[in-house]
Amino acid sequence: MELFVLFSILISLAALFSYINVRVFKLPSGISLMLMGTVAALGVISIGHVSSMFTAMVEEKLQLIDFSEFLLGILLSFLLFAGSLHVDLTDLKKSAKSIASFAVIGTVLSTFLVGYGFHYLTSLLDMPVPIIFSLILGALISPTDPIAVMGILKKADLSKTVETNIVGESLFNDGIGVVIFATLLQIASVGIENFGAAEISLLFFREAVGGVIAGAVIGFVGYRLMKSIDHFQTEILISLAMVMGGYSLCHYLHVSGPLAMVVAGIMTGNRGKALAMSDVTRDYLGKFWEVTDEILNAVLFMLIGLEIVVVTFKLSYVVIGLITAVMIVVARFVSLYFTATAFRFIKRLGPGTLKIMTWGGLRGGISIALALSLPSNPYKNIIVSVTFVIVLFSILVQGFTIEPLIRKIAGKKNPQVPV
Which Gene Ontology MF annotations are present (predicted)? Predict the structure, then answer.
């Protein structure tokens, strides 16, 4: 019952803050909910200076939810599937080369740039974090969060080319980032001396390629089932089974569930909608997943803001986090520029696209969930605290300024052409 009460409070706060945002601020929902969740958390901390019992009670209630398990084990499957439903396969194919390159090469390069940069920064400040744990931070923070990114893009009127690259990359690099994180975590647990290049490659290949294959199978089975009937209630249930059953299956097969959900969602949103659904089913299924996406996003961003209450912040961690946040922006631009130049599609994207992709590459709940999922070790506190600071900087600073940046680069109010 306590868990039900906690979720009731979260939904009620999300509804209240969403109402205030729609009536007053008119910000992208992700930004507004996280901002107000952060303000609420700071309010709780302030009240705690007067009544420590109140803060302790809030912390106790929030700890009823294992944030990492809640997001990575439950929410992520729904959110990635819902986001992928809106990706146009034709547009995706046109940008397949750049999206795949950014998602794989760009994420790997960014992981190493951020990891080594963080290692040298902490060493410089006499709080050295070993290189393997620094690389783990690089892996969990390098992928852009599709949940946060798509929330911002709903308010930014981008060209189709830029939007497809940003959304496509964020959907796929999320899965790649989780695979890199899992690989590095396993290396940290058994020791690099016991893990050769062949083992690392095999683990990465199994997780990534296995996830794509699993997603294709899940999407195809769902497509065939939907095509054989015309009953929108049952077809919505089938889509739910694809997400919940498919994600659970990926977990037991040790392949990437996030990548599987992206592939299954793209198949359902394109081939499924075009060939397996009636107009009525297409309408109901689209609205069902749109509402589901909004509700889960509201809970997620509210929870991210409130989780600040249970994280231990030190001034030194905040300083390191802010420096690392700037470092990540630089590392992302370098990795994008290097990848676009190496694979010769920088001219097609346009000179301003990489700037928009760099500043619009937001970090969100997935990074926090991965940080919190780390097993207990001497470096977990600094990694979790720094990750929170980076995510707050990303959504509140980059999220607030991405739309003006787009307008400035495009040179007009509503950019509709590639920049």
Answer: potassium:proton antiporter activity; sodium:proton antiporter activity
Can you point out the beta strands (E) in 58-108? none
DSSP element (H, E) containing 67: helix 67-70
* Tokens at 311, concatenated: 């994280």
Residues 6+ apart with CB under 8 A from 391: 304, 363, 364, 365, 367, 368
pLDDT tens for 333-373 read 999 999 999 988 888 876 688 888 899 888 888 898 899 88
Q: Average pLDDT over the chain, rounded to whole?
A: 87
Which residue's structure tokens are 């590459």? 361
The gap from C-alpha 193 to its chain's centroid, in whole angstroms, comes to 32
Measure Cα distances from 166 to 149, 162, 169, 362 in Å. 8, 6, 5, 10
Q: What stretch of H or E contains 112? A: helix 107-124
Token match 């396969």: residue? 89
Helix axes 365-372, 380-393, angle to 10 degrees: 170
Does residue 239 register a pLDDT over 60?
yes
CA dist., res. 113 & res. 116, Å (int) = 6
What CATH fold (topology level) applies to the domain 67-410? Na+/H+ antiporter like fold (1.20.1530)
Task: Report the C-alpha gap between 250 and 210 in whole angstroms.
Answer: 9
In one-letter notation, the amino acid at residue 345 is: F
Give the residue extent of every domain in the chain: 2-62, 67-410
Each residue's pLDDT tens digit, 171-206: 888 888 888 998 899 888 877 666 667 777 887 888
Neighbour count for residue 60 (Cβ, 10 Å): 11
What contacts 303, CB < 8 A, 6 or more positions away?
Answer: 10, 37, 65, 67, 70, 365
Phi-psi region of 321 (alpha: psi -120 to 50; beta: other; left: phi over 0): alpha
Q: Mind listing the pLDDT tens digit for each residue in 42-101? A: 888 788 777 778 778 888 888 888 888 888 888 889 989 998 998 889 888 888 889 999
Note whether 363 and 144 are within 8 A (CB): yes
Q: What is the CA radius of gyration of the chain?
A: 21
pTM of the predicted structure, to 2 decimals: 0.88
pLDDT at 362: 86
> How far is it, in rounded angstroms, from Cα 295 to Cα 301?
10
